[in-house]
Structure formats: structure tokens, C-alpha cells
Amino acid sequence: MLDxxxxxxxxxxxxxxxxxxxxxxxNDAVAVASKVFKPRADKQLTPEESHTIHYGHVMDxxxxxxxxxxxxxxxxxxxTYTREDVVEINCHGGMIPLRRTMELLIAAGARQAxxxxxxxxxxxxxxIDLVQAEAVMDIIRSRTELSHRAANEQLLGGLSSEVAALRxxxxxxxxxxxxxxxxxxxxxxxxTGRLLAEDxxxxxxxxxxxxxxxxxxxxxxxxxxxxxxxxxNVGKSSLLNALLKQxxxxxxxxxxxxxxxxxxxxxxxxMLLRIVDTAGIRETHDxxxxxxxxxxxxxxxxxxxxxxxxxxxxxxxxxxYRVLDxxxxxxxxxxxxxSDLPRTLERPDVQAPIIAVSCxxxxxxxxxxxxxxxxxxxxxxxxxxxxxxxxxxxxxxLEQAKASLQKASESVTGGLSxxxxxxxxxxxxxxxxxxxxxxxxEDILERIFNDFCIGK
Length: 456
What we know:
The chain is an alpha/beta fold. It has helices at residues 29-36, 95-107, 117-124, 130-141, 145-155, 158-182, 193-211, 214-222, 236-244, 287-302, 318-326, 365-379, 392-413, 418-436, 442-449, and strands spanning 7-10, 17-25, 37-39, 52-59, 66-75, 86-93, 111-112, 224-229, 262-268, 271-277, 305-311, 332-337, 354-356. The protein has 3 domains: 7-128, Probable tRNA modification gtpase trme, domain 1 (Gyrase A, domain 2, 2-Layer Sandwich); 132-213 and 389-437, Four Helix Bundle (Hemerythrin (Met), subunit A) (Up-down Bundle), CATH 1.20.120; 221-379, Rossmann fold (3-Layer(aba) Sandwich), CATH 3.40.50.300. It is 45% helix and 18% strand.
């Protein structure tokens, strides 16, 4: 049920800045703001036209003290973000003016907004659907141009349109089946047998197409998990620093310096890499180092691609073979480091690409980035083949819809009663509805919007 309270929150990040913005939304937004904001020449805000900006001061109505010089933007419903009356106060960007203004607004009748409550109201008031609401947060968190573009396309309704089209086709099939159930005495033409089976096959194909883009969406949001592994002192941390072009990891000649995993993000060709530098893998009696090795093996298990670093200036070690054996089931690239030194390492017998690099001079790093980018495009939906950035919530609903459609298809093929078919079609319809919010529960909304920042 939609809360009719008037809410307010700071919508800009904490800290010092040129301006700080407080957003107010609700039926009494203008009235509440008018109690603390005094326009120049003592004009009244209530009769003003929508989408106007006013210069004035935030003042304490109890004492008459000026809190800050400010601009106020008045936007009347329904042409607002929440489809409610919205007021935004632009203060100076500092903790004191924003905090004092918030205190005055709450005293004037507003309440502090909950995380994501402005966007939640936009959804409940029908301005956006759930996919578009999630896209708002994806835009805020995007780290690459590609992830930003994908999120923006979803905000514009791209994925929503495809899901809605599938639901429309599914609804037509369900209506035809239920017509035959409800009016058996009428001579109603219904889709049965081969025609219905063909429709369900096409619907299944559409659902599977959306499911196939989950990996693409995960990479856009979370990055392509790239683990740097190897025995101690082969240059794993040096490789991380060279790729990032900064001294992120401690590098010393002492083996075992890195005891834990270190994560950083890198933009390569518009794709986000989540690079994990791991502890050296070797037999050790040091309990701390043993834990580091255990975590390194866990990073290998969770990685999309593994970068195995070998020291090209030394003969291959037994520990190198252990690392190569640990990653043989994963997609990987073998990196022969220290190419600026005389090479004594023999070419390892592996199927993975082998690239020589020098972390000291930077030689070979561009070749390495190109090889990683090729693996991303092989392991996920390639960027040139457009795909929606399906997230885990969408995936779960799509898998439920797929299972229901498969059961309905089996019922059609097996000649079962139309009632069984209708039940499964309704299940698929509800599952697709969960994606866009045609059907939803309070716990779903809570999980989605609690992940938002408070002022959005």
C-alpha cells in the first residue's frame, strides 16, 4: 500500500561540495517546504506554476534565523519523478546547512525517506516498472561506458518491452486454453495440439534467449572475475600494479609477501575486470600462509578466467606444476613474466595462450589485455550481439517461467487435460510478471529498494 506521507532526504553524497540537494516528495511537499523556505520579496510558493525555480533563504520559522541561501525547484504532479509533488532545495554543499535544513523540514511535517523510497514511489505510482527501477541503481553504479549504456537501455524500457511481449503472447495462449475449459458447449476455436505446442516452443525460445544474457549482465555489473595466480615471488602483485598503473599491492623480493586476496577493478576495452591478486600457491607450514593458499584456490574456483604467472628467468618449479594442475579445468592465460631478463623457462605444455610480459617495462601488457578481452567475448554474450543485462532476480523468475512452460509443453504433447496446461501457463505468466512488477510481494520490493541509497 502506497504511503501518503511527505518524505525528504539528502540526495547528494555526504561531504563538502559546491551544492547539496534535499528532495521532498508527497502531497504536502510544497506546503512543508514553504514553512522553511522564504523566497525573496516574501512570495508564496503554493500558487506558483510547476517546474519553476525560486531564489531565497532557508530560515528557522521559530527564531527567524537564516540557515542558508538557497534555490528551490517546485515540480507539481504528475510530471515528476515520483508522480507526486516534488520540491528540491539546493543548499550549499556542507554537512551543517543540509543537516539543519533536514531538521527544519522534519519539524515542519515531513519524515526522513527510507532507502530507495523515491524510486519505490515512482514504481507504485506507475511511472516505471521494477526492471526500470533496478536500472536506476545500475546507472548510479556503472563503472564503464558499456555498463552505463546497458543500464540506460533498461531504464528506457528495452528489457521490459521484451518481457511484456512474452507475457502478451502467453496471455493469448492461456485465454484460448481457458476458453475451451469454461465453455465446452460452445463451438470455440482454441489453440490445441500442434498449434499450441508451436506457440509454447516459441515462448520457451524467447525465455531462453533472455536467460542466456545473464552472464553478460553479471559481467557488466560485477566485472569479469580475473584471478592472478602462481607460486610465490613470480610477479603476481607486480602484474596487478602494472595493469592498474599504480602501486596497489606490496611488492618485495621475499616470497609469501601477499597473504590474502586483493581485489581491484580495471576497464579493458569497455568491459569491467574484477582482478583478484592471490597469495602464492605452495606447500607451507605457516598457518597464515596456508589460509592464503586456501583462499587462492577458492579464487580460482570462482574466477571467469585465470592468469597463471610464471617466472621466465627461472626453470619451471614443482610449485608451478601444482598451479597449472589447479587451473586446468578453467579458462586461462599463461603469463611468462620478466621477459626483460634472459629466459631460462621452457615452454610449458598447456593448451592455454602463452603471453610474455615484463611488469617492469610494460612489454606485453597490451597483448595480455587483448587476450583477456577475447576471452570475455567468448565466455559471455559478445557486446556486438545485443543482449539485455539480466540480473539474478530476473534469472530466477525466468527459470521458473521456463520450468512452467516446459511442463505445459509436456502436457500438450502427452494429451493431458487442458486444466493442467492452464495451471502451468498461469505459473509462467506470474513468473514473468515478477520481473516487471505486474505481480509482486512486499518482500520483493524490500529486497530491491533497500539496496538503494536513501536519497534516490
